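Quick one, T. Sequence first:
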Amino acid sequence: MPDSKPIALILLNMGGPDSLEAVEPFLYNLFSDRELIQLPAGALLQKPFAKLISHFRAKKVVENYRTIGGQSPLLEWTKKQAEGTAKKLGDRYKPYVVMRYWHPRVEPVLAEIKAAGIETAVVLSMYPHYTGATTGSSINDFKRAVTKVYPELECQFIAEWYDWPNYLEALANRINSGLDNFHDLMRSEVQILFSAHALPQKFIDRGDPYRKHVEETVQGVMQRVGCYDWSIAYQSRSGPVKWMEPGTEEVLHELAEAGHRAVLMVPISFVSDHIETLEEIDIQYHDLAVSLGLVNFCRAPSLNDGDDFLDALAELVRVKCTI
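Structure tokens:
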């Protein structure tokens, strides 16, 4: 008789403010995490500096969130991804979401799983490309909470899936959808610009595989898409540290200077819409591109809860987990 015990399917993500009032405390939680950002004054002063920085950054960030409706859509999309994937996996799988820097946080979710009598869990990072700053921090936070709240929980972790074939197929489908926005006579001229979230260069220098993972994802996707010129850039760079290069703004300038007319931007390290796609790409980079003469500029759709992407996640769980 097959095992019918329930399994928690737990998706890990960054989180985002669910109101304009939540922006500053969300930023404080983010800047307080030394696995993500190591402020120069050292661990002792990390939280006081995080308080100061989040206070001053909040005013601008609030306005960015105001332009996309006053809150992050990340929780909504991650819930849909968890529910859709669990449905494809079957009745044994019960969907949960844990956010690193905003609600729902890990400890209440683990308490809920414990109260439900669920003894095993598949924990899936929603960052396909591994970096200690995102997946590493989220998994470490999760493991600390398990030790405290529910040490009996049997967990299997999926920490990276940058080369998962079904994921690459789903991304290729989004690019083909984006290419359909260009006139047939212009389609062969389209420059595909993959834009990933930047990391401070020190993460790469210490051996973090993030850049390599992003590059391998792009190569796998382009094998499926076909013969288009493409490049990779890194967005969301801010603050007085050395960041991964090249920056997305720099590459847009280079494309314009080279006389290109059509650009399809593909958010490569994001698996759903949030502030970096809806505000940074769709507004900031769109306006920059138009001002530079790249008037034929659009973004490929995000993966969100597309059926092909949910199929990819479900198959990933089936293949990678032995629970």
